[in-house]
Amino acid sequence: MSALAELPLLSLRSVRVGSRRDHEVREIVRGVDLDVLAGEKVGVVGESGSGKTLTMLSVLRLLPRPLEVLGGQIRFEDKILTELDERGMESIRGAGVAMVYQDPMTSLNPLLRVRTQVVETLRAHGSSDAAAGKRTREVLGQVGFVDPERVEAAFPHELSGGMVQRVMIAMAIATSPRLLIADEPTTALDVTIQQQILDLVDSLQSRTAMSVVWVSHDLGVIARLVDRVFVMYAGRVVEQAPTVRLFARPTHPYSQALLGSLPGPEVRHRARLTQIGGSPPDPTRLPPGCPFRARCPFAFDRCAEQEPPLLERGEGSLAACWKEPIEWL
Ligand SMILES: Nc1ncnc2c1ncn2[C@@H]1O[C@H](COP(=O)(O)OP(=O)(O)OP(=O)(O)O)[C@@H](O)[C@H]1O
Ligand code: SF4
Ligand SMILES: [Mg+2]
Questions:
Q1: SS3 for 210?
Q2: How far is the CA of 42 from the centre of ligand 2 (A)?
Q3: Is the CB of 313 under 6 A from ligand 2?
Q4: What's the structural domain count of the chain?
Q5: 163 found inside a domain
Q6: Is 322 close to ligand 2, i.e. is its CB under 6 Å away?
Q7: How far is CA 157 from the centre of its chain?
Q8: Which of 106, 115, 168, 221 is the most exposed place for a label (fewest CB within 10 A)?
Q9: Is 291 near ligand 2, meaning CB less than 6 Å away?
Q10: To 5 degrees, how large is the angle CA 95–CA 97–CA 100?
């Protein structure tokens, strides 16, 4: 095995995202470390506003202005994305990393037929007209449309929410990406359709061995799909752990609270994170200390003084909490 093959496919180190105006820096993503191995399925979970989408958009360098990557390093395969120019990034988007966005209706062009949109994506990656047309029909079949011809000829508004999501997934996988980022691909859909979409991406993953990052505010929705979970809170990862370990023994009090309101990973039941008392803080206006302090039943003096770093807790788990910090080291 080459040295490169042993490296994670994607690696984020101390990634910070925010805005810079004059001398005022507003940091929303405050130093995220995250790795995805080749073929791995990873979940990124956290309440609304915790920085999940911005972290993922920083990988593709598609952050909305005035937001930008303020620091840290992002590597994909052998390329340091944070050092690539725009042309280099274009070669990564689609063929390397593809993303299914949170709001599909805004990412499809309402004026263009489905066929045109998928074909244009493929042509932008160097396919000939004939090859792009063939591949378009093929991927629309792969995402479960029994009549790809009819879907190809449709405008987005002629399709249901679930069908639009399938088209988005077809566009994302058309270029055979090594990594697919699925950002809350199902929240707007009813539970049955949601399940179908999750299962569809999962079966595409197992056939192609691409890596998948599932982003969700709902641990219950993605738990059965992922090998490892990154729990985000106020712009940072506060726990990362293999899914089995997280469910058996969550370390961070925030993860414990999330799991306290959830059934086991096999139960297809939706539970809202808002069942945890209090509300998440604004990551740009944090007081010193641990950002979870105001909601944490275990907070003690040290928690007010310094924000805890991610520390090893055994069995592949890392957690950012001052409680029981030493014994696993
Ligand atoms: N375009 C923007 N300009 C300024 N601030 C933004 C912008 N987009 C998001 N934010 C801020 O960044 C925070 C994190 O946003 P992000 O979209 O990453 O959250 P999220 O974890 O994906 O939440 P959700 O579960 O609601 O999708 C938000 O609370 C918001 O205040
Ligand atoms: S560091 Fe303190 S406040 Fe933060 S989660 Fe741990 S015990 Fe709670
Ligand atoms: Mg989001």
A1: coil
A2: 25
A3: no
A4: 1
A5: no
A6: yes
A7: 26
A8: 106
A9: no
A10: 110
